[in-house]
Fold this protein.
Amino acid sequence: MTAVALLLADARLPVAGHTQSGGLEPALAAGLDDVPAYLALRLATVTRTESATAVVTLAHLRRGEGLDAVYDAWAARTVSAAMRDTSRELGRGLLRLATTLWDLPPLLTGLPRPMVLGAVAHATGVPSADLAEVIGYDDLQTVASAALKLRPLDPAVATSWVVAALPQLATLVAEVAHLDAPTDIPATSSPWIEQLAEDHAVTTRRLFRA
Amino acid sequence: MPETTRELRLGICGPVGTGKSSLIMLLCARLGDELEIGVVTNDIYTDEDARMIRAAGVLDPSRIVAVETGACPHTAIRDDITANLLAVEDLVAARGPLDVVLVESGGDNLTATFSPALVDAQIFVIDVAGGGDVARKGGPGIERADLLVVNKTDLAPYVGVDVDEMRADAVAARDGRPVVALSRHDPHSVAVLLEWVRSQVARHRSGRLVPVDPGPMAPHFHAVENGHFHAGENGHFHAGENGHSHDDHAHAH
C-alpha cells in the first residue's frame, strides 16, 4: 500500500471523519444488535458502490475524460438524498484539505467523497486497488470507532470486528479495482440503511452527523 | 496590515455549564442592533444549544447553525476544524455579509481551546459555581485566551466563593491579559464585555488582530509569546483597549 493511501485511511486526517458513524447511530437506535453483520452489510452494499465510484473516477481521470457520467452513475445508485448530502459534505471537507496539499483537477466542487478521493488518487499516484481498499477500510473503522462512543465496549472487541471483516474487504477490492466505466458501478443499495439515513438527518438527538 | 472585510470569528470556549450559550444570547441581544451576528454551536448530543439560542428570540433563527461533533467537541475546534469551517462559510454564504460569527464550543474541559485557524479571537468562560480555585489551577484557556470571563459572580455568596480573590487569581494567571468578572445582573460588567467585543471587531477590521493561540499545556509558553505580543503591534492593544478594560473591571465590583 502506498504511503498516501495510508494517509487517506488515517482517522487523524483532518476531514471531519469524527463527525461520522457510517449510519451506525440510527441503526443502533432502530434496534441493531449485531454490528459485525452491519459491517458486512455495508461492504456488500453502500460501500461497494462508493469504492467502485472512486475507482471509476480514477479511471476517467487517467484517460482524461470528464466526470459528469461518473457523478450521475453515483447519484443514481445512491438512492437516499441524505446519504448523497453526507457524501458531498465529506467530499467538500476532503477537497478543502486536498487542494492545499496537491494539484487536483479543476471543477471538483460539489462532488461526493469517493470521487474526490479518486481525484486525489489520480494526483498522487495511488493505485486503484489501494483506493478501493482505503474506502472500505475507512468505512469499517468509522463504524467500529463510532460503536465505542455509542455502546459499552472493550475497544479490542471493536478492533476485532474490523479484523474479522478484512477478508470480505479483500474480496470487495478484487471485485471493483479493475472497473473503468460508470455503467460498471454496482447498484448495490440497501433500503434499510437508506431509510435510517433519511430518519437520522431530521432527528434532533444525535451524536454523529450521519 | 491590510484591512479585512471578512467577518470576525470569535470563539466562546469553556467547561460545560459555565454560561457560554447565555453569554452568546447576551451578545446577540445587546450588540444585534449595531453588528450583523451569526452563531455556530457545537453541541455534545443534541442541537439543544442552537435551539435554546433560537428560542431566546435574540437573533434571526436562520443565523444560528449547529455542528455535530461525534462526541469529540475538542477535536472539532482544535485538531480537525473541517466541520466548523464549512458551517461558518455556509452561514456567511447564506446570510452574509456578517460582522461577527460567534463559534460556541461544545462544553468540554479546561484544556480545550480553539485552533487559530478557526477563530480570530477567543473568550474562555469559567464560573464561580465551578469552584473558586479554578482560575488558580490555570490551563491554556484560562491563562492565554484573549479574554477570560469569570461568570455568574452574582452566585458567589451562595457557593461560598470570594469573587475578588478568584478574579485576582485569574489576573495573576494571565500575565496582563484581560479578565471580566461578569454577571448579567451587573450592567457595568456587561458593558465591559461588550466594549471588549467591539474592540476586537475594530481591531479585526483594521487588520491589527492576529490570532494568538492559547496553545497546549506548556508552563512557559506565554513568556515567549508575550515578548512578541508586547513588542509587536499588539503593544497598541495593551496600551489602549486592554488597559481600558482593566480599569473598568477594577470598578465593576
